[in-house]
Amino acid sequence: MTTVLVFLLIVSSVSIWWLSKQRLTSKPWLQSGLEIFDGHADQIRSSKPKVGLIVFLGIIGMFFSLLISGNLMRQEVTDWRQVPLPNILWINTELLIISSLCLHFALVAARKNDASLFLKKLPQGGSDLSNIEMIKPSVKRAVKNRLRLATFTSIAFLAGQMIAWKELSNSGFQLTGNPANSFFYLLTGIHGLHILGGLVALGRTMLGSWLQITQEKLMARIELCAFYWHFLLVVWLVLLVVMLGWAHDPFISSHH
Amino acid sequence: MAVVILLVLVVLGSVLFHVFSPWWWTEIATNWSVIDDMISVTFWITGAVFAAVILFMAYCIFKFQHTEGRVAAYEPENNKLEIWLTIITSLGITALLVPGLVVWFQFVTVPGIATEVEVLAQQWYWSYRLPGKDGKLGMVDNRLISNENPLGINPNDPYGQDDVVIDSDALHLPIGKPIKMLLRSADVLHDYYVPEFRAKMDMVPGMVTYFWIEPTRTGEFDVLCAELCGTGHYMMSGKVFIDTQEDYELWLLEQLTFAEISPSENLSTATVVADGN
Amino acid sequence: MADIHTKTDEHITPTEVAEVELYHATSFWTKYIFSQDAKVIAIQYSIVAIAIGFVALALSSLIRLQLGFPHLFEFITPETYYQFVTMHGMIMVVYLLTALFLGGFGNYLIPLMIGARDMVFPYVNMLSFWIYFLAVIVLVVSFFVPGGPTGAGWTLYPPQAILSGTPGSQGAGIILMLASLALFIIGFTMGGLNYVVTVLQGRTRGMTMMRLPLTIWGIFTATVLALLAFPALLVATVMMLFDRVLGTSFFMPSLIEFGEHLSYGGGSPIMFQHLFWFFGHPEVYIVALPAFGIVSDLISVNARKNIFGYRMMVWAIVGIGGLSFIVWAHHMYVSGMHPFFGFFFATTTLIIAVPTAIKVYNWVLTLWRGDIHLTTPMLFSIGFIVTFVNGGLTGLFLGNVVVDVPLSDTMFVVAHFHMVMGVAPVMVIMGAIYHWYPKITGRMLNDAMGKFHFWVTFVGSYLIFFPMHYVGLVGVPRRYPELGDAAFIPESVATLNAFISISAFVVGFAQIVFLYNLIRSIRNGKHAGSNPWRATTLEWQTAQTPPGHGNFGDELPIVYRWPYDYSVPGASVDFIAQNDPGTGAKPETTS
């Protein structure tokens, strides 16, 4: 469970850092009346969906940490036989990297036309959209193309994963054959499901880029997708390290 | 007011119930009376805390119930009081934890001179194996379990030939000697539980777990399974007898070894080692 | 006073809080069925949770029928007994308590208490309920498939859970249970994201974290715990599904069952236990922390006194939440895991008792020199303290590793967890319902019925579970439908069991009075007004009762103080609302 505890340590550190800004040592009964506490100074700067995504990624990270923990615990037992990773996995990895890059550059393109930087803030909150520039056609094209490529490469990634599965099972590495096999299919399968889920969100974003949504909204959505994709890329790289057998739970291996 | 009386009755009733309760632990049959002592100490400390907190609460309700014109005091916090309470609580916790861990250390440290007895659990019965004259248990493998080989002893292991196989629900143990119970399961999780022993442990298929005891009185005791293992879990009972050394040896003479119960074609060319090597 | 920083209004606009684009439902379907309004979702969660809770209550009556009067009812076979025990446990812990505290109370109270119009992701929130509902349906379906529901115990330990010796293992029973849990976790994650991000980002102006009522601290921390702990259950569930359906051996060692060598091999049953309890222990705090928070507020309001030691209470909640992740293996002391872990986990387990004890002291110290009104919510709060202290103290027996050895898997454990997790949090749920029902419906619950409900439930529950500890002390194991003729069990245990069972039936019947009260008072209850308890928190300061769409009318409240300004010296009334800038005169909220 070391991986899990390490991940929890990271989460706790972030939580403690955040908590430390909430003035938990203050005496709230002394701070009332006409002096207004601006609660917003304590709130996180990012938008609500962004915060939501960060929390969600914390949960996903926990989930993968647990799976990896299980893998590392199991691999110390003597009957573990390392799975020879099919070569196509390296191509898939490149595809995923390209996906992430595409989303990153889509975001860059969308930001280029960031008229929202010049929008007037209204007294009652929100922005004056009356003279917002809808997205310039050239920018729209760039964004669309990059989103398309990101989608295509991600779908290709998933197809490549399935080819990897086929290859493995044809060479005799069945799901139930060896615990290493089981973990391989489980880890890659769960990761693939998360990419699939992400594709749903990406689809919505692409739809948005076709329709007349505002610059602000489009940028926000692409930013979330990009963030999610980068995170899953990191997860994938960690999984590769684990599946190559390069990682060991220090606590467990010391017992053998 | 009724509430105050209720709270006082709860404390009083609980204490009296405890004091007069005919439902108490069974008389211990092993060296682990120190665990009973720990339970008693814990009852004293927790009982005192329970009574103190609930009676204090009853007092508060009695004294500070709303009446016309009553105003609550204003006291947001009292750091000093809270620190003292924290210290006292921590001391109480330490008073329970430290002796508890000392005893746990004894529990997991098996004396070197302990003899070994193996228990094999299956759905839904117990069987046993003793090391026999060579003092060593032979190798076993669950995959070797069969009708002729109920404990899965490896026929190629010379140490296994003289293992005493007890394929019934009655185990005998000699009084006054430390015994390490080695626990195995052929199928699912079980737990070898004899209330009078105080010690118990789960058996996990694929592992060998253990606990150790030194029996301190003779008698006949029930063995129960203490880890839900399917529909027959509650019926998975047996008996264990603590005998005097003489009675134990008499019983032992009647038991069969692995070599004796194996059909002759299974007997390997491994030589039977007669004395303790 | 060094902490205060005053800001002039130069660069703060009056309503600095950006207005949420509220979804305005128009049709019947979008208003009451697929509603995105957290208040409606809260009620939906609560109704489903309470309904399935009554199913679990009925199952407990069947269990007690068998234990109190064995051999009397032929239809209760060992198989069905194990199925009852399993479903009773799983429903109560997950589908009732977790769903009700977080999905029910969380959804209703979070936006109102922090001054928000709704949750931050209302569409996802709506989905979360329907996925929960689907999870409940799948669970109920498992009762009716061939082989029936699983009888593996709510802990679902492999290898037995998926092998033929256990009821529900060969048919769809265990599969549906696992599927239902997976659905629950997915649905719950959607809800949990809402609760956390809303508390982080949705607070109104002036509502700092240290001005939040403890109810919100409790629910918020519990949600964080849940979001981090449920993945462990999901991993365990997925792996067990693989083992059962696809034949993998994550948890399955090589084994021979009923003479047949199975094709599994190399798996670790103990790994399941680690994953399960890594979820399972935080789970009990996911249930307990909201209870802690809510009871703090109930006591405070009804004693007209601030909660004693608010700062310590907050730190204790956070501390307990953090520590709850490193105590899990105290459920595994006799599992056969490496003995070293026993030292570590006993230490952390006993350490976690310290912040918990501080909370107890602070609740009682709130009563000290208070102005105590023995309303029904206050009575239930007192009932909580008694049963929680009792249950928490017996935890000290079980947490101390070597003392746990004789007591584990006996009725002592069953008594402990029912007292501390069954009775105590349920006391809070009941008190909370009496407390907030007037806000949700505009009517008071009938007081006489409420008092009756309290007395029977509290006394009855105590009579059920206190003596049960002694049944365990005798050595009677848990999960035994019958005791057979074990020599160490005296005859009198049977009498005690019968007594416990009768108490259980009485308590069960009293809940029907509660249900009747809940339903009847919607029409016949006394009109409550907007703040019948004269409380300070924001939900009582809404313009409309029940709160209308958007909760607070045209303008969101501004918060000037913490939620515990009761009986402040010099104030004209004995409470000052959080959005009151002055010293007790209620500001007019626009409607």
Description:
The complex is a heterotrimer of chains A (256), B (277) and C (591). Chain A has 256 residues and is mainly α. Chain A has helices spanning 2-20, 48-75, 88-112, 137-170, 179-210, 215-243, 250-253. Chain A starts with a helix and ends with a helix. Chain B is built from five helices and eleven strands, in the order H-H-H-E-E-E-E-E-E-E-E-E-E-H-E-H. The N and C termini of chain B lie far apart (77 Å). Chain B has two domains: 2-63 and 78-108, no CATH class; 115-269, Immunoglobulin-like. The longest helix of chain B is centred in the N-terminal third of the chain and has 32 residues, at 33-64. Chain B is α+β, with helices and mostly antiparallel strands. In chain B, the strands form two sheets. Chain B has a six-stranded mixed sheet with strand order 8-5-1-2-3-11. Chain C is mostly helical. Helices cover 60% and strands 1% of the residues of chain C. The longest helix of chain C is centred in the first third of the chain and has 37 residues, at 78-114. Chain C starts with 27 loop residues before the first helix and ends in a 67-residue tail after the last helix. The chains are: A mainly alpha (256), B alpha+beta (277), C mainly alpha (591). Chains in contact: A-C, B-C. At the B-C interface, helix 1, helix 2, helix 3, strand 7 and strand 9 of B face helix 3, strand 1, helix 7, helix 8 and helix 9 of C.
Give the CATH level 1 class of chain C.
Mainly Alpha
Describe the global form of chain C.
Answer: globular
Corresponding CATH superfamily of chain A: Cytochrome c oxidase, subunit III, four-helix bundle
Element pattern of chain A in H and E: HHHHHHH
Mean residue pLDDT of chain A: 84
**C-alpha termini separation of chain C:** 36 Å
| CATH fold-type name of chain A | Four Helix Bundle (Hemerythrin (Met), subunit A)
At CATH level 2, the architecture of chain A is: Up-down Bundle
> Low-confidence parts of chain A lasting 5 or more residues at pLDDT below 50?
none
Number of helices of chain C: 14
Report the CATH topology name of chain C. Cytochrome C Oxidase, Chain A
Fourth CATH level, the homologous superfamily of chain C = Cytochrome c oxidase-like, subunit I domain
Mean pLDDT, all residues of chain C: 92
